[in-house]
Design a protein that fits this description.
This protein folds into 2 domains: 79 residues, no CATH class; 80 residues, no CATH class. The chain is of the alpha+beta class. It has a 6-stranded antiparallel beta sheet. A two-stranded antiparallel sheet has the order 1-6. It has a two-stranded antiparallel ribbon with strand order 2-5.
Length: 165
């Protein structure tokens, strides 16, 4: 879902208090001041993933006007983006494994023409499905776990840790 005015962390805290599962992809940053220190900030502003029933989401939207559905065009129709559980689990695993090495990119920057669908069989990402391809600005091929219409997470994996699907 989209959250207006960069309120994603406030909304996530509210969802946690209500017992609703919510996920915001984070990235590590260096904050300058008297001393350098690391902190986390949302990797994509105004984006939050919520795991709830349609009725629960409708009730949340009525009390929180900053929550909006993310929409996409499919076959000439506009529809809400609903992420399957397996795909969301893989995306969350990639985003939380090593935040220093994960890159979150808008979905329109990823093209799967030459990518090979793979399954990770070794390492901390074992069991994750995604695409394996070279991305501009990176030396090696990377694993891409994509949420169509929203974003993609990419991370470098060893070629010997993946097998084609």
């Amino acid at each position: 879902m989209r959250v207006t005015y960069r309120r994603e962390m406030k909304v996530k805290a509210e969802m946690d208090a209500l017992g609703v599962q919510a996920f915001v992809p984070m990235r590590r940053i260096l904050q300058k001041g008297r001393r350098l220190k690391t902190a986390f900030e949302p990797a994509i502003h105004n984006l939050i993933f919520i795991h709830a029933t349609e009725e629960k989401v409708q009730a949340l939207k009525k009390t929180r006007p900053e929550l909006q559905y993310m929409m996409r065009q499919m076959n000439g129709k506009t529809e809400k983006i609903i992420v399957p559980k397996r795909q969301m689990d893989d995306f969350m695993k990639v985003c939380t494994t090593s935040p220093d090495f994960v890159e979150i990119v808008p979905s329109e920057q990823i093209h799967f023409k030459f990518g090979q669908e793979v399954l990770v069989v070794g390492g901390p990402l074992q069991g994750v499905r995604g695409y394996f391809q070279r991305i501009e600005g990176h030396r090696n091929r990377r694993l891409i776990v994509s949420i169509p219409g929203a974003c993609s997470a990419t991370i470098e994996v060893k070629a010997e840790d993946v097998v084609p699907v």
